[in-house]
Design goal:
The protein is of the alpha+beta class. The protein has a seven-stranded antiparallel β-sheet. The N and C termini lie far apart (38 Å). It contains three helices and seven strands; from the N terminus they run E-H-H-E-E-E-E-E-E-H.
Length: 127
């Protein structure tokens, strides 16, 4: 397996941190934009796309600040994290994504996040 590269993307989101967090950390919120359906049992989240299931563990979460998941099929220390950053001066809310991808899949992974977050913005009315 190739070494994975960490990448980070920032998106400005017109939403309160509290509302945004609900879409990042709850199965019902995640199924509005991230996957067709999401179920959870404790720390284990099952994401469903077009009938295919992928399972991730919730590694860390801090209410209204961030969630970090790791795909169960990954045998390395990679994860994906969605962090809410509020600018102290302007109070602008940003969604900061950290993820990992193999070098030849980096652009594709970034594009996927751009598409997913575009869906999130639409759900939030933040477009």
């Amino acid at each position: 397996m190739d070494e994975k590269t960490k990448f980070e993307i920032e998106f400005v989101i017109q939403s309160s941190p509290q509302l945004l967090f609900q879409y990042l950390a709850t199965p019902s919120g995640l199924s509005e934009w991230f996957a067709d359906n999401v179920n959870s049992r404790g720390e284990r989240f099952t994401f469903i796309w077009d009938g295919a299931e992928e399972v991730a563990r919730l590694l860390k979460r801090k209410t209204d600040e961030f969630v970090r998941f790791a795909w169960e099929y990954n045998e390395d220390d990679t994860y994906f994290e969605m962090r809410i950053i509020v600018d102290e001066i302007t109070k602008d809310v940003s969604l900061f994504i950290s993820d990992f991808a193999e070098e030849d899949e980096l652009e594709e992974a970034k594009m996927l996040w751009h598409n997913q977050v575009a869906d999130l913005k639409q759900v939030l009315g933040s477009t």
